[in-house]
Amino acid sequence: MKGWRTVWDIFVIVFAALLLALSYRIFIFPNEFAPAGLPGFATMLQHEFGFKVGYMTLIYNVPLVILVYLLIGHEYAIRSAIFALAFSVLLLTLERVDLSRFIYHSDHSAILAPIAGGVVSGFCYGIVMKRNSSTGGTDLVAALVHHKWPEHNLLWIIFMINASVAAVSYFVYGYKIEPVILCVIYCFLSSEVSDLMLKGFKEAVKFEIVTDQPEELTKALLDNIHHGVTEIPAIGGYTHSNKTLLICVVNKRQIVRFQKVIEQFPGSFAYLSSVKETMGNFKRNR
């Protein structure tokens, strides 16, 4: 099973590389703006000097992958190398494929290209990160910096790289502000979509209830909500009386039903917080 899982992960990583390469050919290259990270600098070099992004990504990813392999982890480095190699080869190969009928030109709406490209980029980033890989470039730089200085915030490192790409694009693309705005839109959407992919879609709500009727309230919750309840002994800070803290994670659509149950126990106090993702034995009961 582990061998098949590895094969499937590699297939998904190569598929993500293909999607990203298509996105570059269809949305980015024809519309004169730079994407996020080190590929953004490579795109601007191609625009100015004709040096292919496919070759440039190989040049900067090879030493980065070697350093990550030696300093951080073999599997992460190897899987990142697979993505980087697949992306470069596919990007160079697609130059020989006639994609004219699919290429989007920003004649009518310049904003659509970075929107589409950013969504694709974020999707690709999310699915490769879930498989202990990366898209290379900026991700590898951030991993190395974090290894050397773990106290540094990786978000600031990625932000500084992306901000530099956006600033330089002003000079590369004819001293115009539009490429800067398009780069910012691309970076923002890529980050948001990848964040959604990594956190997942299994959002829920966590209720914490302070009560002196734990048995009755637990039974009512189990009968009506059909989710497990965890009991933790507690002591009231004002009365110093024995209480019980009940913890229950439910689906968002069950909030109203949960509130109706709590209303039956006026001596209890409850508050809720958002749960970004649920893992393990959590059933999405209606």
Description:
With about 290 residues, the protein is an alpha+beta fold. It is about 60% helix and about 10% strand. Helix 1 (about 1-30) runs antiparallel to helix 5 (about 110-130), helix 3 (about 55-70) packs parallel to helix 6 and helix 6 (about 140-150) runs antiparallel to helix 7 (about 155-170). The two termini are about 35 Å apart. The relative contact order is 0.12. The mean pLDDT is about 90.
The share of residues in helices is 55-70%
- In one word, what is the shape? elongated
For the sheet with most strands, the description reads: 4 strands, antiparallel
Strands in their spatial order, largest beta sheet: 2-3-1-4
The overall pLDDT average reads 88
- What structural category arises from helix and sheet content? alpha+beta
What's the total count of β strands? 4
The total of helices stands at: 10
Please report the distance between the alpha carbons of the first and last residues: 33 Å
The run of helices and strands is: HHHHHHHHEHEEHE
Short description:
The chain has helices spanning 2-28, 38-49, 53-71, 74-94, 112-129, 138-148, 154-172, 178-199, 214-224, 255-263, and strands at 204-211, 230-235, 242-250, 269-275.
